[in-house]
Amino acid sequence: MEEKEIKQNKGLPVAKNTAQAGKVLHGVVVKSAMKDTATVAVGRYVKDPKYKKFVKQTKKYLVHDPENTAEVGQRVSIKESRPISKRKHFVIIK
């Protein structure tokens, strides 16, 4: 895997190659009934501040699926992209 070159811009890191910039998340498709859109649930573990116990939290993202290939239950990776609609700003990557 290539290393990204990072420049410092007023204290904030900026990726030199914008094609590689953006978050990549992994989750499970929970809904794919819409045209060109799927719903992906991404889970993560967070430590509870009071009880010091790890708890699983889930967040759903609307993702762009131009080929309509996503099926319910399928594990996918999603990448942040430009806003495609009001709530859709991730794209499914294979």
TrEMBL record:
Q: Does the keyword Ribosomal protein apply?
A: yes
Question: What Pfam families does the record tag this protein with?
Answer: Ribosomal_S17 (PF00366)
Task: Cite the GO molecular-function annotations of the record.
Answer: rRNA binding; structural constituent of ribosome
What's one GO-annotated cellular component?
A: cytosolic small ribosomal subunit
Which CDD domains does this one have?
Answer: Ribosomal_uS17
Q: Name one GO biological process term.
A: translation
User: What keywords does the record list, in alphabetical order?
Assistant: Ribonucleoprotein, Ribosomal protein, RNA-binding, rRNA-binding
- SUPFAM superfamilies to which the protein is assigned, alphabetical: Nucleic acid-binding proteins (SSF50249)
InterPro entries reported in the protein's UniProt record: NA-bd_OB-fold, Ribosomal_uS17, Ribosomal_uS17_bact/chlr
Gene3D superfamilies in alphabetical order:
Nucleic acid-binding proteins (2.40.50.140)
Enumerate the PANTHER family for this protein.
Answer: 40S RIBOSOMAL PROTEIN S11 FAMILY MEMBER, SMALL RIBOSOMAL SUBUNIT PROTEIN US17M
Task: Give the protein family.
Answer: Belongs to the universal ribosomal protein uS17 family.
Q: What does this protein do?
A: One of the primary rRNA binding proteins, it binds specifically to the 5'-end of 16S ribosomal RNA.
Q: What does the subunit comment say? A: Part of the 30S ribosomal subunit.
The entry's protein name is Small ribosomal subunit protein uS17
Species whose genome carries this gene = Candidatus Kaiserbacteria bacterium CG10_big_fil_rev_8_21_14_0_10_43_70
